Amino acid sequence: MAHQWTDQEGRAYPLSVPAFTNEGAGGGVGAYLLNRAKPYLPPWLGWVATGLAGVVGHQRWPDSAAGGVGLTLTSVALTGVAWAAGKGISKQRRLHSAVTVAAGSAWVTAACLAGPTAGPVDDLFLMGGPAMALSWNVRMIMRHNSEGTAGSSDGGLLEKVGLARAKIGAAKVEPNRVTAPLALQPGEQTNDDVAKALARIASALDLPKAAVRYTPDPDSVRRGELVIVPEDMLSEVVEWEGPSNLGGSIADPLVIGRYDDGAPLVMWLPGDPDAGRNSTHVLIAGGTGSGKGDAALNLLTEILSRRDVIVWFSDPKAFQDFAPLRAGLDWGVEGGSPTEVMVAAVEAVIPARTRWLGAHGYRQWVPEAAQAQHDPGHSCRPDGTACGCAGMPFLIGWFEESANTLRNLGDDVFTGMTQEARSAGAAIFVSLQRPSYDQMSTSTRASLPSVIALGCDPRDEGFALPETVIDAGAHPGAWGNRRPGYCYVVSPGIPEDRYASPGRTFRFTPRTVPVMEQLAAWAQHHGATADPVTAGAAASVAGRAYTGRTTDSGTGPQPAAPRATEEDAMEPAGLLVDPEDAGIDPETELPGDEPGDDTPIFGQEAGHKPSPEEARRLFAQALTEFEDEGRMVVGPKDFTDWCDRHSLSRSWVSLRLKEAAQEGRLDATNTTGRWRIVPALTPA
């Protein structure tokens, strides 16, 4: 009958020993003692074998000069082999092995030549042999005791993976997570050796590569923590059920999924001076089919559920994934010129928001900044009395599928924005498939401290994650698009040992669409609206293109005019004259023909060509019409139909655009040949 042994913490040992029974008690005890003595028998067996070798050798080479030479050379050779073979072990064990081999081979040489009982040879055998065997027994006992005390027994695992002599400390066992401190051999091993051995450790444990991680100690180059997660809890898809903190502050954590050990996957956006956490911008990176859309929906739904934040959102895909949430946005645009206007608006509001925060005594945005300023400690008045200024909500500038924006506006379009927005109580979100350096400038990438790295091509891992996180065991390239939603999250506020832990975002299905629509309706009625400073700075750039989120009490669609009744139809309706002809005197004679009227010109249809003064007036009117339509970025191609209608060339328009820029009516953009209209009237 076998007995399974466990320690005080309930961990089972993989060996079985005979159990104690009343039947054959003598045999049972003897077998148990023999089993316990087995590890200590080899040195004693070696001692006996050495004596037998001396007796047999004396029968073969008594008083033989040739035998003496051969035995001496053999003794020296064995000692050298023992020393060379111990190169990979500790110095003490290497020296102990070499001395044991040298002493044993020297005694065999003497016994073979002079006889095992001649002179002191037998005394050396009877005294030195047991002493040498006992020294090895003592060494084994000390090693077992030290390993048991430190809790570092690894069953030979580290030796198998090339980390011999590294010490594992007492492991911390949690549900589906084992964390063990690791101390490497001083002067011979570093944390880089562990990072290179992670794949072999996973192979030895028969686990996926992502299940084994290593977190180096920042204060030591040879110490760290080895983390093993034996079961992948992310294989089960968890559907999104709604926001985690409806009506809370944007400063509270955003729950977007869970880690592989079941812990919640969270992020923070604003900074916290008490916790020492900085504000952050976010990069969402992942290949096609990796679940980038669901990751974005998790973040956006959490953001829209908070009371003190507004979102400006650009989506060149015409809100294909985000349509149910569009009503909750403060400003939503599609790609092209509207996105260019939004970028310019974000650049304009940053200094305005920074000035407001500084004037009210905020070194960074905190939830109190979103409330009316009734605290004298946060007053902008020189006399220190409460100013009562409207609060400033946190601002999210989100640029979905940013590859299009970067391609049209340049790879450094977000550089200045990301470098300055954190101090203005704003966070920039950039989402694209491949954040490589040929698409995004290195300065912009360095200004995005947070990243959600989903499955990607193995060659793109270094573009998304820091090198230290990859060395710790993070490998999004192992997933590709085969595991949608799997991700690594690196962000301020998350413990660094979590950076290399895989997580998975919640899944959005058609069943979640009604919940998202309800959330957008809640944001319309209860969410924050843009403060006067932010709205004014945005309107100064975007003009009528920025309207802010509409609500039932705000500037929403106007009700239809009441239908005319029969009595109304009988009332006089005034002169039946077009409004544009109302100022014409019917008694005035018509003007005479002007040169060019109804005279065909080669290559041009018949019609009136405006004079230079009239053409300039029509051009200014065209700019006003574009502004009224919300088309704030224009170029010569936008005037194609206008040129045909007024018999003017695109080269003439190009000159007028440059003149308008010199006069301040237009402003240059990052794209050659494109100009941004400066609003003629700016709200206070």
TrEMBL record:
Signal peptide: none annotated. Residues 262-463 form the FtsK domain. Residues 578-597 have a biased composition (Acidic residues). GO terms for molecular function: ATP binding; DNA binding. ATP binds at residues 286-293. Keywords: ATP-binding, Membrane, Nucleotide-binding, Transmembrane, Transmembrane helix. The chain crosses the membrane at residues 65-86, 98-118. Residues 547-612 are annotated as: Disordered. NCBIfam families: plasmid_TraB (NF041214). This is Sporulation protein SsgA.
